[in-house]
Amino acid sequence: MFHGVMTALVTPFKNGQIDEDAFRGHLERQIEAGVDGVIPAGSTGEAATLSVAEHKHIIKITVQQVAGRVPVIAGTGSNNTAESILLSQAAKDLGADAVLLISPYYVKPSQEGIFQHYKAIADAVHIPQILYNVPSRTASNIMPETVARLSRVANIVGIKDATADLAQLTRTMIACEDRLEFYSGDDATVMPFMVLGGSGVISVVSNIAPKSMKAITQAVKAGDLDTAKELHFAMLSLIDAMFVESNPIPVKAACALLGWMSGDLRLPLTTLEAPQIQALKQVMSDFQSGVETLKV
Question: Would residue 88 count as lying in a domain?
Fold first, then answer.
């Protein structure tokens, strides 16, 4: 249903408010670069700092601006099942094509709790739903057996796996018996993830280098693993630079360096220090993929 490069969008802020003009411009750059989908209001979009009204507004802007040119997969996850249902219903009503649901964070539910959380959302809102497993942020892990149970729920269509654990990915794929699509949530392992059978990536780095990330996915899909490997190696320094601090701190700094938006973040996130900015400038200046150059 969804495939290729799907960008986990940053949310531009200006004077503490959503910068709608900058966001619309960012969406146009993404579509022009050929991305296969966009994800507003996810972790990269600082969803945890958005009010419910802002959350709905950023989804609405995305659907309006994209106008059907690529799928819109709205981030609607929460550690509160009722809130996830509310946001997922709102995303459906606003015209999103699917929702992306982070596993409940902070509360550390059991595997049964995780299953019941996702099952309740799927039962309440009839829209394609993608699970999101990111243990580094949630302090819990969706185990292969739980994903397999959820794969039998009709409108749960995929999982974003940000574990960077290819052994767990393999076990999960085997357990699901081709009932789910798998999307990498870890930019540094997109190539091997897709070689194992992944359908694409929900990417942070594609905010600034969408063509290069798409080139990797296309090369793997075409079976040109030599090219995919070359691009994979070429992107590593840039990908590493995007995670020197918690996402989206570095990628927002990169967007600001490119002149696309302010680098404003909402507390408790804070901007990069001056030495880190200089290091980021150097990485971006040095980046050469054969596809894309980042000029700062």
Answer: yes
**What are residue 99's phi and psi, to 5 degrees?**
-130, 150
Does a structural domain hold residue 265? no
Per-residue model confidence (pLDDT) at position 166: 97
Distance CA 180, CA 287 (A): 35
Q: Do 193 and 184 form a contact (C-beta atoms < 8 A)? A: yes
Identify the domain containing residue 148 by its residue range: 4-224
**pLDDT at residue 259, as a whole number:** 97
Q: How many domains does the chain have?
A: 1
pTM assigned to the model? 0.96
Cβ(128)–Cβ(89) below 8 Å: no
Q: Which residues are catalytic?
A: 132, 160
How far is C-alpha 123 from the geometric centre of its chain's CA atoms? Answer: 24
Chain-centroid distance of CA 249 in Å reads 15
Tokens 């999101």 found at? 132
Task: Please give the average per-residue pLDDT across 142-165, as a whole number.
Answer: 97
What is the pLDDT at residue 1? 78
What is the domain-level CATH number for residue 124? 3.20.20.70
- Hey, is 18 helix, strand or coil? strand
Task: Give the C-alpha separation, 127 to 1, whole Å.
Answer: 12
Q: Give mean pLDDT, residues 44-50.
A: 96
**Please, are residues 91 and 74 in contact by the beta-carbon 8 Å criterion?**
yes
Phi, psi values for residue 13, rounded to 5°: -120, 150
Q: Say if 129 falls within a structural domain.
A: yes
